[in-house]
Design goal:
single chain; about 425 residues; Rieske Iron-sulfur Protein; Naphthalene 1,2-dioxygenase Alpha Subunit, Chain A, domain 1; 2 domains; seven-stranded antiparallel sheet; 9 helices; 17 strands; globular
Length: about 425
């Protein structure tokens, strides 16, 4: 039995409502299959269009074995290119971000236009055809200020995501925002443990005292079930929708992405220790009311997000190895907001920086425990960990489909309700 067959058998033998078997969290062969089945097939959140406002602006990222450049062309379009020179394969851009009139390989100075066309290759034969050696591109799409890439030769349909999510995020005007702060940490844990920890707040009260000043631990907030039966949430949705903000819980047909606008505690308007706004200038000129809670947006396998009235916090997850995951957090504010006048970077980032570090310690201890031969899958709390179960249902279904090269219809968890936005 090869590793693909073994993983498929393990997926189908998994006990419902329980964690995955331990090999899914550290086995190098299963990690390689995760790259092939998930990371090289799905749409991945790369960054924000506002990070590259001018032609030649770029940022880079690494997805598994693939170094990638995301940049804005002379025509204003955002593109994604493989960061691999067509000569002898050197990385072209080693910086995390920057600006360039053209892309020049540092090894032998092969030079490329911003759309990937090869412009110059020194001392090549007279019959050398430059048109054959442009940089390879990959699929790139934008939605509401978010930039997504896909490494697959045949990418999944993106239009459904755009159609569902853009009405939620458009009022926040992230395409015209700016990144006020950024933080990247490496968690010594499998990427699925990072996601599982994110998808529940069962752990929040004993581990996140700063976050719990404003973010509710209630399972109706962080889970996938019961939100529409919660009168506090229902009242919040009605109030936000009266402001023209789509708010009600909505989930994609395959369970990969979802959005809902949720209230914060005790009238808090932002993720600060006081609950007061971290930024004086609202994130968007479209939203005058500060008390709109947080728009929770999830897209597996790369991103979760919090969009508030004064700022937005976006998170990007990238796997670095079987037990190593990179988490990048960005804080976005109004494009005209001035640090030291409209906001303090320390106040803006304090709650999530400490929360991220707390989560890092949690998942690293989780990794040490599940790596033990004594570990066996344990049961989830049906009350608090519905979000974790929903994530694993998506992961198992997407992995099995990739292993068998088929598509399985989405079947919501028992009791889960799928609502359409009234906005």
């Amino acid at each position: 039995m090869d590793e693909r067959q073994k993983m498929r058998a393990d997926l189908r033998a998994r006990k419902p409502g329980h964690t995955l078997p331990r090999q899914f969290y550290f086995d190098p062969d299963y990690y390689r299959l995760d790259l092939d089945n998930i990371w090289y097939k799905q749409w991945l959140f790369a960054g924000h269009g506002c990070e590259i406002p001018k032609p030649g602006d770029f940022f880079t990222l690494q997805v598994g074995d693939y170094p990638i450049i995301v940049l804005r062309g002379r025509d204003g379009a955002i593109r994604a290119l493989h960061n691999t020179c067509r000569h002898r394969g050197s990385r072209i851009c080693s910086a995390g971000k920057g600006s360039a009139a053209r892309l020049v390989c540092p090894y032998h100075n092969w030079s490329y236009e911003l759309d990937g066309r090869l412009l110059f290759a020194r001392d090549m034969p007279a019959d050398f055809d430059r048109q054959r050696y442009g940089l390879k591109g990959l699929r790139c799409e934008s939605a509401g200020g978010y930039v997504f890439i896909c490494l697959a030769d045949e990418a999944p349909d993106f239009s459904a995501f755009r159609a569902m999510i853009e009405p939620y995020i458009a009022p926040h005007d992230l395409a015209r925002a700016k990144v006020a702060a950024e933080s990247t940490i490496v968690e010594e844990a499998n990427w699925k443990l990072v996601w599982e920890n994110n998808r529940e707040c069962y752990h929040c009260t004993p581990n996140h005292p700063e976050l719990c000043r404003t973010f509710p631990e209630a399972p109706t907030i962080s889970g996938v079930d019961g939100a529409m039966d919660d009168p506090v949430i229902a009242d919040h949705w009605r109030r936000c929708e009266a402001l023209g903000l789509p708010s009600r819980f909505e989930i994609s047909a395959d369970g990969q992405y979802r959005a809902a606008r949720m209230p914060l505690l005790r009238g808090a308007v932002s993720y600060t220790l006081s609950g007061k706004a971290a930024v004086k200038k609202p994130l968007s000129d479209n939203i005058a009311e500060p008390n709109i809670g947080t728009l929770l947006l999830f897209h597996y396998p790369t991103s979760w997000n919090h969009l508030l009235g004064d700022h937005a916090v976006t998170f990007r997850v990238l796997p670095l190895g079987p037990t190593k995951t990179q988490v990048t957090t960005k804080w976005l504010v109004h494009h005209d907001a001035v640090e030291g006048v409209d906001y303090s970077a320390d106040e803006l980032t304090r709650v999530w920086k400490v929360t991220n570090d707390q989560d890092r310690r949690i998942v690293e201890e989780n990794q040490r425990g599940v790596s033990s031969p004594a570990f066996e899958p344990g049961p989830y709390s049906a009350l608090h960990e519905g979000g974790v179960m929903q994530f694993l249902e998506w992961y198992c279904r997407a992995s099995d489909d990739a292993l068998t090269e088929k598509a399985t219809p989405f079947s919501p968890l028992r009791g889960e309700k799928v609502a359409r936005s009234a906005g």
